[in-house]
Known about the structure:
Helix content: 10-25%
Oligomer: single chain
CATH class: Mainly Beta
Structural class: alpha+beta
CATH superfamily: q2cbj1_9rhob like domain
Strand content: 25-35%
Order of helices and strands: HEHEHHEEEEEEEE
Largest sheet: 6 strands, antiparallel
Number of domains: 1
Strand order of the largest sheet: 1-8-5-10-3-2
Radius of gyration: 21 Å
Distance between the termini: 56 Å
CATH architecture: Sandwich
Number of helices: 4
Amino acid sequence: MSSSLSKLAESLKPKQQGVMFSEKFKTKVVQLEQSMHFNTDRSTSIHDNESLNYSLEKDIKNSGDHFGGRNSSVSCLMTRWDMHLEYESFKILGDLAIEAAEDIPLALRTNEDGSPNPIEYYVQETWGLVYNKGHVCKAHTHWPSVWSYTYCVSACDDCAPLCFPTNDGHHAIAPRTGQLIIFPSWVNHFVPEHQCDHERIMISGNLDVVW
C-alpha cells in the first residue's frame, strides 16, 4: 500500500520546476529639496521642502496609529491608507511621485498613428509610518499596483535603510530627509530593525494606471 502511495505522490510532482528570471528594474531616487520644479503649481501652498516635511509629520501624528500593530508586515505606527484624500500634504507628495514615475516609464505605447500615448497614473493609496527603536518591516511587495514610492520625512544616515533582496544579498538605500524613491510595485523590499533612538518617519504609496 505504501509503495502505491509513494508512486502516486511521485506522479503528482510537477515535471518541470519552471525558470527563475532575473532582470534589472527601474528605480528613481529624487532629493526633493533639489527638485521642487516637480509640480511647481501644486507646491505653491507649501513653499519649500522643510514646510512640506513639517506638514507631513503633523498630519501623520494627527491621523495616528490606524492599525494598532494589526498589519502583518510592519510593527511600527501606521496611519490609514487614504491620507491623500484627507490631507493636502499627502496629495502634493502623491503628485510629485506621479511626475517622477512618468519620467521613467516601464514601457512605452503609441496611438494607431504612431504618436506617443502617455500612460496616466493616479494615487491608489498612501499612508504614513513612524518607526521607533526595534521596529521592522518584513519583506513584501505592493502588487498589483504598478509603481510604489517611499518618502523620507525625517531620518539620519544611521537609520534603517530600505532594502531590495538580490541574488547577492540585498541592495540597501540609506534614508535621507527629503528623499523620494520610486520602484515597481512587484519588487520585494523590507526595512531591517530600526536601531536609532529617534523616530524614522516615512511615507509610502502606490500608483496605478488610469484606464
